[in-house]
TrEMBL record:
Presence of keyword Protein transport: no
Disulfide bonds: C72-C81
Keywords: Disulfide bond, EGF-like domain, Membrane, Transmembrane, Transmembrane helix
Keyword Transmembrane: yes
Name of this chain's protein: EGF-like domain-containing protein
All residue ranges annotated as the EGF-like domain in the record: 42-82
Entry-linked PROSITE patterns: EGF_1, EGF_2, EGF_3
Transmembrane residue ranges: 100-124
């Protein structure tokens, strides 16, 4: 039977998950220490039903009349320790304003690409069938006439 005793316990350095072994079996245990709570004169720790009055409390204490008070964890405040004092210490994560923005942006880009593709296909289909190239053609009909000359060309030595 081996055990480890931590004499000067600090929640900053010693809290965490510890692996415990006994023979061939093992278990992971989470250790979360608490400072010793010293109750004021005339108070006692809460009973089971009274503990529900405190949300994020290290301890619940009750006076002689049954009125409960809570000793809050760091980062929490309020009568029942339900108000976060510091968001980072309370480990709360604010949800983004629009948590779905990456899929929305992706969908918008996809729709834009499909639109551009459809415009290109439409322009390709309305192109004249006889056109084999992408050059601009003059669509006016050409009236060429053949020109004949009665003069004969002769070679002249210079």
């Amino acid at each position: 039977h081996n055990s480890v005793i931590i004499d000067v316990y600090s929640t900053k350095y010693h809290d965490g998950v510890y692996e415990c072994y006994a023979g061939s079996s093992s278990a992971s245990l989470r250790l979360r220490g608490e400072d010793i709570v010293v109750l004021p004169q005339g108070f006692r720790f809460c009973h089971k039903a009274e503990n529900s009055a405190c949300d994020h409390a290290r301890a619940c204490m009750a006076d002689g009349t049954g009125r409960t008070s809570c000793v809050c964890y760091p980062g929490w405040s309020g009568e029942s320790c339900s108000i976060p004092r510091d968001i980072e210490k309370a480990n709360l994560i604010n949800a983004p304003i629009c948590p779905y923005w990456p899929p929305v942006i992706t969908l918008m880009v996809f729709i834009g690409c499909v639109f551009v593709l459809l415009v290109c296909l439409y322009n390709f289909r309305i192109r004249p069938k006889h056109s084999k190239s992408i050059r601009c053609h003059d669509r006016r009909p050409h009236n060429y006439t053949s020109v004949r000359s009665k003069e004969t060309l002769t070679k002249v030595d210079v």
